[in-house]
Amino acid sequence: MKYTATTDTILKKAPVQGSTLPEDQKVNVPEGKTYDIEKVIENDGLHSQVELAFDAGSWWIFLPHWDTGEAKPDVTPPTTGIVTAVFTLKQAHSPYLINGSLTFFEDGQEILKVVATSGINGFQYPGAHTIRGKGCLPPANDWKISTSGYNLATKGVEGMFYHITPDPRQGRGELGLHRDANVPGSSGCIVVRDSNTFNAEVVPLIDKIKDKQSQINLSVVYT
Fold first, then answer.
1. pLDDT tens digits, residue range 82-119?
2. All structural domains of the chain
3. Helical H segments across 123-222, by residue range
4. How many angstroms separate the Cα of 25 from the Cα of each of 6, 13, 16, 20, 101?
5. Torsion on CA atoms 132, 137, 142, 146, rounded to nearest 10
6. pTM score above 0.85
7. Largest alpha-carbon pair distance within the chain?
8. Going by DSSP bridges, is the β-strand pair 109-118/100-106 parallel, antiparallel, or unpaired?
9. What whole-number distance in Å separates Cα of residue 44 and Cα of residue 2?
10. pLDDT tens figures, 116-164
């Protein structure tokens, strides 16, 4: 088997966000790099552990970053009955964590609004989105939240994780929507500040629409 990186990504020794791993536990892989794969050892959500050929060892990969030669599911956004989302946050230089909001709309009508944030305290100012592992999710109107979430045991997530695409360049990737499970804030993901609200309101909403909608269009607006 041959796997080809479709974007700049990493090989890693654990199925967690790359920014949380020490440098000796990951290898940077440029877009277009191809590896010979001896076998797939196991899968964990959107991660897969593979044995590389030529005694190169076993590594975890993030499947959305790779062309594995297998047919991919259709992820074309639906054109009718869409649920969309808008994340807003007032950016500033502050030693304290700044909260914003994540609002869901159905056919243009607000159906759910929750307190959410992105980034960590001290790194939520304009332009800080370029800082890996600390800054906010980059501002854009073309983000998509996958409705095919999976349970992730990674510290800081410890629950349902919904991948946000497209993966940003400049070394930032594997971003998503999840609850704020540990140290307040995130490494660039959007986190819902109250875990009960996330589990009782956000997760059921996404579950409700996932059969008819594979993605939620997400706008990120900073003021």
1. 899 999 999 999 999 999 999 999 888 889 999 999 99
2. 2-67 (2.30.30), 83-222 (2.40.440.10)
3. 195-197, 203-209
4. 21, 5, 11, 10, 35
5. 100
6. no
7. 56
8. antiparallel
9. 20
10. 999 999 999 999 888 888 999 988 878 999 999 998 888 878 899 999 9
